[in-house]
Specification:
5 strands, about 230 residues, about 60% helix, five-stranded parallel β-sheet, alpha/beta, single chain, globular
């Protein structure tokens, strides 16, 4: 079958990343999130930490240019004779990597405005995972071992960063707009594991995968667990 890509946008604490990882495992393909930042670092010759520090957020007060000022640049970067003028350049690197991945393999991509970057490709399924705040707070408390107050503040701040990032790089579109996606799923009402099954059923209907692909990959995973 032809290559395909599934992109995920997700509210913090909604389980979106977990759903993406489970889907990728079911289909026997890679799930990319921060690995894209590693590739962007390699492409630009800049320290990966710089990319991680501004991941899916817009920086104020001069953006990436001020952040880089005074920092040593690698030989590879200097050899390129390029000027990294703003966060926009980081997004260009990420977009190039996302397009390259879509050209080369079937995969799952989490965040990075991947649904927007790949919007003109017919073999892309875009998913948005959301959930009520109380559900997200409870999950965040359990995973991060923090209080409800800290969890709530983390969710609020992270989701604001993601929304600002998406709006900026999509030229005014808003992150939670259902028109951006093939489907939006409430992970509390549907359930994390059932979200995976719903997405798989949709992909079967779209002709991107077959039920046999899922079953054979699950059997392989179970064999690996038992060995």
């Amino acid at each position: 079958m032809e290559k395909f890509v599934v992109t995920f946008a997700r509210g913090f604490g909604s389980g979106g990343k977990e759903i993406a990882s489970m889907l990728a495992k079911d289909l026997g393909i890679h799930c990319y999130e921060n690995r894209i930042l590693t590739l962007a670092s390699q492409m630009s010759g800049l320290d990966e930490k710089l990319f991680l520090d501004i991941n899916e957020r817009i920086r104020g007060n001069g953006g990436f240019t001020n952040f880089l000022r005074g920092l040593p640049k690698s030989r590879q970067y200097i050899a390129r004779n390029e000027k990294f003028v703003s966060d926009d350049r980081l997004f260009e690197y990420q977009s190039q990597i996302i397009n390259n991945l879509a050209d080369q393999e079937s995969c799952v991509i989490v965040g990075k405005c991947a649904d927007y970057v790949l919007r003109d490709r017919p073999n892309v399924v875009s998913i948005y995972i959301e959930a009520p705040r109380a559900f997200c707070v409870e999950r965040t408390m359990q995973k991060m071992k923090v209080s409800a107050k800290v969890a709530s503040a983390t969710i609020e701040n992270t989701d604001k960063y993601r929304a600002d990032y998406y709006k900026y790089y999509t030229h005014g579109n808003y992150w939670t707009n259902p028109v951006n996606y093939d489907m939006t799923l409430n992970s509390e009402k549907v359930g994390v594991e059932r979200c995976v099954k719903v997405i798989e059923e949709y992909m079967i209907l779209k002709g991107l995968i077959t039920r046999e692909m899922i079953l054979s990959e699950r059997s392989l995973n179970e064999e690996e667990k038992g060995s």
